Amino acid sequence: MSHTENDFSHPQNQSKLAIAVFFTDVFYRVFRGGGIIAIIILIRDGLDSSTLLYVILGIGLLAVLSAVWGILAFFRFKFHIDYENREFILQKGVLSSSITAVPFDKIQQVYLKRSIIQRILNVYRLKIDTAGSKEDEVDIKALSKQEALQLKEILMQSEAKNSDINQNFQGEEVEKTQEKTEKSTAEKTDWQYHVSIGTLLKIGLTSNWFRGIWIMLIFFNQIYQEIQSLVNASVWWNDFESFLEGFQGIIQILVIMAVAFIALIFIGIIITLAEVFIKYYNLSIEKKNDRLQLEMGLTTTTQFTLKPRRVQLFKISTNPIQKRLGLYSSDLHLGNSQDDLDKTKIKLPGLENSIIKKLKTFLYQTEKSSTEVFHPHKALLIRRFIFSLIPVGILWASPFFIENLDYNYLIFGIISVLYLLPMLWFQRKVVQSYSLSINGDFIIKQKGFWTQKTEIIELYKLQGISTNQAYWFKNRNIENVTFHTAGGDLSFPLVNQSEIKSRLNYIFYAVETTDRAWM
Amino acid sequence: MNSFSNKEINISELPDYEAVKMNRISPKQLVKAIVQLIIFSLILGAAWGFLAYEWDRVFLETAIGIVALLFLTILFFLVVKKQKKYGYAIRERDIIYQRGYIFEKTTVIPFVRIQHVSTSRSFLEKMLGLAKLKVFTAGGSGSDISIPGLTPELAQQLKEKIANQVKDESY
User: Fold this and answer.
1) pLDDT at A167 (0 to 100)
2) A463 is in which domain, residue-wise?
3) Fewest CB atoms within 10 A around its CB: which of A279, A345, A475, B76?
């Protein structure tokens, strides 16, 4: 560690730059919220001198008030570590005052984050996630790099010790050696991986562009509605209609539709690429001792430190194109008592197969062999096929609802066959791809014909199991199984009840006799 | 460490969760469900009556009325059928809860994974002398269970029993 050692045992303020962070934050909000109101007032009332004066006065008053508030808040915001009671203590509040004490053993996660402002000011934002409610979450807006890293190291170390005590590992001896090794090898890196810009490009190009198109449509719909409320949009629509009327021939219309379609996909790709770059720019994974250090993000850089026991559900997904390019994507679902699952899901795209393997060995030390594999009953194919019949049903039912149109039933028939035959083949492939493997340590589900997904749960991290049997599957003796974890559920459809029963009994036995803490 | 043993586990001899005999819930739960259904039917009937009064399309009104009646009959049938399917059992190390007629669902929660247990009573349940037992896990809504149709005393007993088991199991 570095020269000026701060053990945070006395109450202290954050870096003075926190005031600057606070200002830019407030300014941004005032600009976003107040700016629009100001513009609306200006448009409505015109730019005469008195309204302009009021607007300027209003903004000025707001700025002064928030400045006073910000400075007061800064001086009232104090934090320190109470080593005796093993707690992190935070005092804050301008008019009110609150003291939050976070016991070390409730600390789940310590992360460092940086937005653009924080990067310009060269400060870090430190967040502490706890196992409890949202109120006792700690968020320190500005710390110098050195302080942030030190504080994080202290908090993570105390967390590490806690977990060892909780996990009932072999007691004192290990703890002492651990302490020693932690000091000497604190900076030792076992392996690291960095996702390059080229890889990000590949991820963007091979992702699902429909998501990008969808985001764009929602965005444009919003803008369109805003415009519509300002301008009379029907004028535009009339222009567009008369423009279309110029094209009489079917081929011309087809060409226009094709151009529109290509343009849509093109925009979809651009947006998908932008999203990938914003989220995962500079994604790097570093394994140090028993921890994983993650960093990613373009506008906001997020740093996580992760321990294997926190991961409740591990998902890997790829598709044939991405597989060829060596792009596997993995989701780490972390345990959290809150319902907010999104917050505790970490997505790592663009990993090579070797990195996936390393991640697996990091998360799960053991790899047992005697695995029993389950496959879904063929009723799943029937069920999936019935669902894919819905569009055909709508097609054939349409003459009953829309009258006065000529229907060519021959064309209906051809369309139906052209759709259903490949669909049947596709659904067959999907159903064949389903498998559920259960062994002494893991539950592994695999599925997907195009997008291939693997989900892994460690047995002892299970919270409960549900089975679900429809009335009409009783005679066939098949049921759905859902495995519940603190990071989400894993469901598997239509397995043979009497075959899986003994495995479930074994899982209950394993969970109920383990002394490993699930989190 | 001297009591260490590592016998092989014979999977087929492990206790079978499906073989456990389920405890049935109070028949008063059926009364509660039927009262709720009647209230729902009355609201639906009032809505239909209002529609019939406002509209002049007899055929459509009758059709909607018949569909609604059919719907309510099915609901009534399901409520009666469902009553017999409710069941729960407490083993040494876990709790089993079963429910559902069309989709029969069985959930098993090991005591070591229970976060907390509580009982609750709605207005109707208070009138009928019923209570619910709620068991919460870290798995969220998927694995949380809520057993209806218990007497308040039984719900309290079960709650204490489970709470004690949870304390014994986790160290």
Assistant:
1) 39
2) 284-376+434-513
3) A475
